[in-house]
Amino acid sequence: MPVELLKIIKEQSEIPLPRHLQKEDLKHLQDGHDHTNKYFQGIVILSYPLTKLSDGTDFFKIVLQDLDNLCSRMNSINVLIHGKMALDCAKIIRHGDTFIVAGFKVIKSPTARDDGRHVCHLEVSEEAGSTIYYVQTKMLQIILPCSSGNNQDTFSVAPKYVYTPLNRLKDGTIVNLYGVVKFFKPPYVSKGTDYCSVVTLVDPSNVKLTCTLFNGNLDSLPKIYKIGDIVRFHRIKIREYNGQMQGITSGGFASLTFDGTVGAPVVPRTSSRVYTFTDEEHKTIEDLRVWAASNVSNSGSAAKLSGVQPMLFFDLTCQLVGKAKVDGSSFLLKIWDGTKCPYPSWKVPVEAKDLEGEKSRLRQLRNLTVDILVYDNHVHLAKSLKIGSFLRIYSIHAKQASADNGNVSHIEFHLHGGTCYGRGIGVLPENNPDVKELKAFLDSVDLADSQNMESMELDGTYSDFTDLESHLQRCQQLPVTVLTDHQDLSNTELKTIMNSTAPQQYRIRAKLRTYKPQKLHQSVKLHCSKCNSLQEVPNGDDFDFILQDSAITAPNPELHNTSWYDSVMWTTQDQKQRKIVIHFVKHDEMLQQPEDTLLMIEG
DNA sequence: TTAGGTTTCG
């Protein structure tokens, strides 16, 4: 769990907590109990000086009072904060503020008998995966000139940030800014030492800024998941590059990212342990959302597997079911999104021993999973992905592969190398709204239904019709064909007809399984009016052979110089002394300029 | 340092 310390300067009507967290009552805090996904909220009534433990760890102790249990005799609890979080908390905590903590340990309190507080205390640290949400109830009006050397037990300094609109950026400055994400590349491993993410922002000044962000820690780059997300960057360096302003990470760079949807909760995504977030800034986000709704197109290329278009690129939100190494430069991801790809998709052959993932799950979902082959720079990230995690894969190429070598035509999914068009893989957290929606959908998928799909394929009902071109043709047709004839007959099941004796008249409604002739040219025959013989139109190879054959026959002089072409004949200089005739086709009985003339060559 | 938006070619 990320460690966050949320500091709201003014009183806030609603504290933006992740939805999965539930409030825990003071009475229910007991050691040995599961407090996962629970938070405890209290008012700071006492804090002790920041100290160091014997092992050098920073240590800060506070006492929280539970407002819901004020009437009970025992209504306070000790909270012991360790490490970096102790330092952070000591800087900002004041009596009377609201302190909310999740991801704490509940330990028997050795001092309970003496201090009369709760029999347990809470242990809070980064290592324990704790998160603190901190609400400062009163704005401190005094801005101290310098924060170093302050009595931090008494005062905290709320830095006043100034944000520069994108049309006011100057070369060589370090600024704070807001922007709506117009384009982004999810973090990828650069050729240097860091992760890199490229983000293009716009704002109501209608100026675009492309930022190149580097950090050795993946978590420190902005957590952008889609076009239209809103970011707040602090301390980004502005430089001029190719005649345009460019943003680049500077030493103290920090970012917050917000969902850009109007009306969605304003909950920042960040890895910063301490950050300010005022009512004023809350308003800025809401204003930017409204502006973006009509000024930034977020009609990206998101698709479901059921909606993929061959030969196009698309973004997919999905769950990882399996993964396997293929070779040095490519890696296989088996994913599903609960929908069925309407085209036969390829299965990348891998050794069973190389395939990671729960065997029973892979088997259960095998008709709904598709293989995505990722290449080059994406391999490193792909390898690190956890089975079951939720992903957004950006700019997957749905490549149409035609039938050859005994394969039916099918669709292949590639995540090619490079990062053009934001190509890459992003891991979505469980609390992401799109993930929640996908999870709910995956839970609703009737897996028995997909098993039926499989049995259809096995008996050929489906596989005889898996030619991609046929699918494409079928998709282009109207979905319903109304037959106007024989309306007086009701439909009869094929089973009944098979068990009946001929002749009978029936009307059926059935799915097309196969048809003949398979190729259009087989529908046309060559007919000789003299001998009345009927022949197949020759296929490609036979046709070549016939042409070769005619090449050794001398041109027919009777066919020279007609009303619609002029003919010229010459004899080749080689030993074969072939006779070749070129017929220049006339247009309106006139010869054209040579470059405009249709030529027919004989011999 | 890295990348500096604008699809691979497996």
UniProtKB/TrEMBL annotation:
The keyword DNA-binding applies. SUPFAM superfamilies: Nucleic acid-binding proteins. It is found in: Chromosome, Telomere; Nucleus. One of its GO terms (molecular function) is G-rich strand telomeric DNA binding. Its main location: nucleus. InterPro entries: NA-bd_OB-fold (IPR012340), POT1 (IPR028389), POT1_C_insert (IPR048953), POT1PC (IPR032042), Telomer_end-bd_POT1/Cdc13 (IPR011564). It comes from the Eukaryota. Gene3D superfamilies: Nucleic acid-binding proteins (2.40.50.140). Residues 163-293 form the Telomeric single stranded DNA binding POT1/Cdc13 domain. One of its GO terms (cellular component) is nuclear telomere cap complex. Keywords: Chromosome, DNA-binding, Nucleus, Telomere. GO terms for biological process: regulation of telomere maintenance via telomerase; telomere capping. Pfam families: POT1, POT1_C_insert, POT1PC. SMART domains: Telo_bind. Belongs to the telombin family. This is Protection of telomeres protein 1. It comes from Grallaria varia.
